[in-house]
Amino acid sequence: MADQDDDIILSDLTDEELIQQMHDDLYDGLKDEIIEAVNILLERGWQPYDILTRALVAGMTIVGYDFRDGILFVPEVLLAANAMKGGMIILKPLLAETDAPRMGKMVIGTVKGDIHDIGKNLVAMMMEGAGFEVVDIGINNPVESYLEALAAEEPDILGMSALLTTTMPYMKTVIDTMVAEGIRDRYVVLVGGAPLNEEFGKAIGADAYCRDAAVAVETAKSFVARRHNQLAVG
Amino acid sequence: MTDRVPDDATLAQDGADLTGSGRVLLVACGALAHEIMALKRANGWTHLDLACLPALLHNRPERIAPAVRDLVEARRDDYDSVFVVYADCGTGGALERTCRELGVGMMRGPHCYAFFDGIDRFTVRGDDEMRAFYLTDFLVRQFDAFVTRPLGLDRHPELREMYFGNYERLIYLAQTDDPALDAKAQEAAGALGLAYERRPTGYGDLETALSGL
Lengths: 234, 213
What we know:
By secondary structure, chain A is an alpha/beta fold.
C-alpha cells in the first residue's frame, strides 16, 4: 500500500478519503502519517471520539483480523500499534475533556514471574480505544498487586496475561485468592496469552479466555453490557 | 539409514528423517538433531532411531502437538516404542495431553533450555532469571532465522525495545565448547542490547532421559 501513497497530501483528502487513508497508514505502521491525519481531523472540527473509533479503532480492527487470519505477523501488528499509539497520545487528553462514552474500567497486568507484555499492551490500547478506562499495573505482578489495584481502582474487569507455560498457573492463584477473600464475583476476570486456551480459562475459574486483543474488547463489552442489564433488572 | 544430519536450515524448515533399524523411535524437534545424534554416537545407542519435525514449529507452538501426533501415528507400528523429545515448548500442556493419549513418553519441563540446564536447577532459579533470554547451540547458529527475521528486527530495528525492553541478559546455554559460537552469541546479545553470559550445560537432562530408553 505504501508505495502508491508516496505523493498523497493528507490535507488535500476529503474526510472520508482521509479516514480510508488512515486505515491504510495504520496497516502500514506509519506513525507520523497517523499523527498528521489526527491533527488534520481535529482542525476540521472532528470530535476526538469519532477520530478514535472511525479511524484508529476501525483501522486496528482490520489489522487484528488479518493477524488472526495469518496475513499479518507480529512485527506488522506492533508497527500498527505503535502508529495507533501516536494518535492516541494526542486524543487521550481530549477524550478526557469531552463526554465520550465510557464503557467501563479495567485493571490489567502480567502475572508474577512473567515479563512479557506485548499482548497485554495491545489489549490495553484496544480497550482504551473502545472507551474503557484502563489501569495497567505492568509485569511480574504477585497476587497482592492485583488485590491492591482492585481495591484502589474498583474496576469492572480484571485482565491477566501470561506468555509462559510456567507462569500461566499463577492466574489460578490470583483467582483462588479472590474467591477466598469473597471478592471474586465483583469482577469479570478475563485471561489471555499464547499458551492459554478456553479450557484452561474455564479450569482456573476465569470468566473468559480471550485469544487476541479484538476478542478481548468484544468479550469485555459483552460482559459489561450483561452486568448493566442485571443491575437495571435488579 | 543415515547418521548424516542435514544442515540447520533444513532442520529448521523441514526436519529430518534419520531412521534406520533401531527399535525405539525418537520423535524430536529439529533443533535437537545434532545433540541427539552426538549422544547416539558417543554412547553407541544403535537402538535409537530419530525422526525430526521442523524446528520452526516453535514459532507456531499450537501446531506442535498435532504434528507430533501425526508423526507418532504414522511411524509407531514400525517400532517397539516411541519417545517424544520435546518439552512443553509453549503448547500450554497440549503436547503432554497428546503424549498421554498416545501412550508415549516425553521430556519433562517447560522447554529445551530447562532440560539442557537441568530441570531441577532451572526450577530452583525460578524468577531470578525471568529477565533472561536463552539461546542454545542451535539457536545461536540459527539466530537470524529464529529471532531476527521472524521478529522483523532486520527490517524494523526500532521494535527491539518493544520485544526486549523487559529483558536484561542473554544466557547462552552451551552444549559444546565452541569459541565461534560463543562469539556469535555475544554478538546476538549486543544486537538485542542485553548483557551476555555463557553457561556451559552439556546435554543436561537430555542425556539422562535418552539413556533410560
